Amino acid sequence: MTDQTNLPLGEPVYFFKYDQNNSGGSFHYDENLGENVVVEAHSPGEANEIAEGLGIYFDGCSSGDDCGCCGDRWSPAGRWGGDKVEPNDWSVFATAEAAIAAHAPDPDDKLKLRLKGDQLVIHYLDGRKEWHFEDTTFKNRWSR
After folding, report:
1. What are phi and psi for residue 27, nearest 5 degrees?
2. What pLDDT score does 47 carry?
3. What's the gap between Cα 79 and its chain centre?
4. Nearest to 2 by CA among 124, 99, 140
5. Are strands 36-41 and 120-123 parallel, antiparallel or unpaired?
6. What are phi and psi for residue 74, nearest 5 degrees?
7. Which residues of the chain have pLDDT under 50?
8. Burial of 95 (0-12, 13-18, 19+ CB in 10 A)
């Protein structure tokens, strides 16, 4: 669990996951972004603001930055429930550990190894950043 000493008591935090679509057949990587990005925030709106500050954008097709056939590279958090956390949203986690566990590769299941286990970066409210699963077979399948 994250250090929440700077947060108001009783204010819940969540971990919002952004899956990068390889629009145009490639992923975008930099010091803040990998295939998957998790942002700690109090609401989907706050998560989206933080994500945009990291370089995530939600209008790639309309701006001409992403492939119209492939779709937008990123989708905003809260797309189904506005600015409230929905209980059945598969991209929202109660803890960083839950986000990591849901994303961890299973070496005994080759299909899951291709679907999960690619690069994951978590951005915490206190400014910390953690990278996970950087040395998987999946990572090496894509050019950088």
Report:
1. -100, 160
2. 94
3. 14
4. 124
5. parallel
6. -130, 150
7. 1-8, 113-117, 136-144
8. middle
